[in-house]
Design goal:
This protein is of the alpha+beta class. 19% of the residues lie in helices and 39% in strands.
Length: 271
């Protein structure tokens, strides 16, 4: 059995920037333990596994430590691979069956747009130790379904953060988003994302976090179309169109590696 494996830089138009994701094209369902071992081997923030199902594809995402319910950059990478490598016609929208319901992708070259569930954050009381773990005093604390969102005062403060990852891993959530207004023109907000409990100390560019960031900044700025910049060391740009219950996330992607898994690493055959 030949298993194709790709590494794609997502939310960037140039190699070696944005967020790298692995994409594994499978002929059918695979054992979850095997997928987790592959993700640990790849050692990227997420590895996407997909196979044909019905009129679309089944899609699952794994960090090096756990399976996750939603991932933006690996979905963007998966759509990019399907169109670039040829399994899907370039003019055909894609449908993905996931643990977060049906997600879709459409191509508006050079951009790919993902349809994701919106996650408007609500004001909340910060859990004990969160501010201390981040080393910052936020202006506001909000909570989405799976992440905390902290509103900081400036882009400089967001960039300067050096969280205590051990303490941050104890915070009850998938991860912590920090955000602030930009210091200059070109984007509407900046952010960073930390998820040490999921094996990701800092994610370079987090599409799913913009399901929360989009509604937050849309309400603040009074606009439905926004551009965010995640100011991790690699950095990346996410365009957002905010609807009532859904958000469209726009990004570009670049393939940097393409290969085949060895026969010894193939998934086990079903019993």
């Amino acid at each position: 059995m030949t298993i194709e494996l790709f590494q794609v830089d997502a939310f960037t138009g140039v190699p070696f920037a944005g967020n790298p994701a692995a994409v594994c094209l499978l002929p059918g369902p695979a054992d979850a333990a095997w997928m987790q071992r592959v993700a640990a081997e790849m050692n990227l923030s997420e590895t996407a596994f997909l196979h044909p199902e019905g009129d679309g594809y089944a899609l699952r995402w794994f960090t090096p430590k756990v399976e996750v319910d939603l991932c933006g950059h690996a979905t963007l990478a998966a759509a990019h691979v399907l169109w670039e490598a040829g399994p899907a016609p370039p003019d055909r929208p894609l449908r993905f069956a996931t643990r977060s319901g049906t997600l879709t992708a459409v191509r508006e070259a050079p951009w790919i747009w993902l349809d994701f569930p919106a996650d408007p954050p609500q004001p909340a009381m910060a859990p004990d130790g969160l501010a201390e773990a981040l080393g910052a005093r936020p202006k506001g604390v909000l909570k989405g379904r799976i992440d905390w969102l902290l509103d900081l005062g400036s882009e400089a403060e967001v960039r300067a953060l050096k969280p205590d990852m051990r303490r941050l891993a104890a915070v009850p959530a998938r991860g912590v988003i920090v955000t602030a207004p930009p210091k200059g023109p070109g984007v509407d907000f900046v952010s960073r994302f930390f998820a040490p409990a999921a094996g990701i100390p800092e994610d370079p560019v987090t599409g799913s976090a913009h399901c929360c960031l989009g509604p937050f900044w849309s309400a603040r700025l009074g606009r439905a179309e926004l551009t965010g910049r995640q100011v991790s060391p690699r950095g990346g740009t996410v365009r957002v169109r905010v609807g009532e219950r859904r958000v469209a996330l726009g990004g570009r992607a670049v393939t940097v590696l393409r290969g085949r898994m060895g026969e010894s690493a193939a998934p086990p055959k079903p019993a």
